[in-house]
Amino acid sequence: MSQDRLSPAHGVDTVALDWALRMTDPVSADWDAFTEWLEADPGHAERYDRAAATLMEAEEALSAQPEVPVPVAIAPEPVRRHPLRWVGGAMAAALIGAIGVTAWQDRPQPYVVETAAGETRRIPLSDGSSVTLAGLSRVELDHAEPRRAVLARGEALFQVRHDAQHPFAVQAGRLALVDLGTVFDVRMGGQTRVAVAEGAVMVDPKGAALRLDAGQAVTVDGDRLIQSAVEPQEVGGWREGRLAFDGVPLGVVAEDVSRFLARPVTVAPAIAARPFRGTIDLEAVRRDPAVLGPLMDVRVRRAATGWMLEPRE
């Protein structure tokens, strides 16, 4: 086995190695995600082959030691890839010895958490922080990098344990955020909005470098960041069943409310831009969405897929 090929000093492609490890288990392998990764860059296939060869060399080295039993199960051959063998505990130990403990520990270990409509979920992180997802939301995390999160859609409340040496970073679409020791809410959709309940957040640290303190919020409008005031106790209020709005377009309000209902709420184009100010009791809306009518001065009509807000006649 070539030690140069596996030595961390010569560079271990940890992303490709992680894919090679993940794809050795035919039961849990995510073929769709793997194919998407391969097709994202023509060089990914070659990187994967090198990583797969690394695994095979480690297996060969281990099999040359008959006193160490290795359980083996042949996995189905993935499209355009060579068949790989299941990596058990002994094999993992051999691989760690080959590439180095640091490279093994630092390899990406991504995972995704999603919620359905009406569902909320709290995700504790290994650094002591936590992420609470609203309905219809998706966050991308990594066990090897717990101080970073990507909010792909929906809304999340971040409760971060401050560490000045290792700041917590959040990516929400094109908007980058860095924690300065805080509790903050990030909402994506028709508008991307960040609101701070405790501590502070740095918005777009490599660009505008806008600091938000408790009681402040920012909304993304194209290339502009529009700052506003919020009640700190209302930040993340959806966890207690309420949504507070101050001049937010009805289209965005409906999108937010829909996260907490089994059936979505949509708005007629004629009133989608109308601003709304007020607090919505989510439990009351769940019982009867018609309560939105007098609150928003609209007509609530039951549609085929959910509820439609229309102008009053």
Briefly say what this structure is.
This protein has 313 residues and is of the alpha+beta class. The chain contains 9 helices and 19 strands. It has a 7-stranded mixed β-sheet, with no helix packed on it. The chain has a 7-stranded antiparallel β-sheet with strand order 2-3-6-9-10-13-14, with no helix packed on it.
Molecular structure report:
The protein is α+β, with helices and mostly antiparallel strands and 313 residues long. The chain folds into 3 domains: 3-106, no CATH class; 110-232, Jelly Rolls; 241-310, Phage tail protein beta-alpha-beta fold (3-Layer(bab) Sandwich), CATH 3.55.50. Helices cover 26% and strands 31% of the residues. It is built from 9 helices and 19 strands. The chain has a 7-stranded mixed β-sheet with strand order 1-4-5-7-8-11-12, with no helix packed on it. A 7-stranded antiparallel β-sheet has the order 2-3-6-9-10-13-14, with no helix packed on it. Strands 16-19-18 form a 3-stranded mixed β-sheet. Helix 2 (14-22) packs across helix 4 (44-63) and helix 4 packs across helix 5. The protein is globular, with a radius of gyration of 24 Å. Residues 16-53 form the FecR N-terminal domain. GO terms for molecular function: sigma factor antagonist activity. It holds the Pfam family FecR. Residues 112-201 form the FecR protein domain.
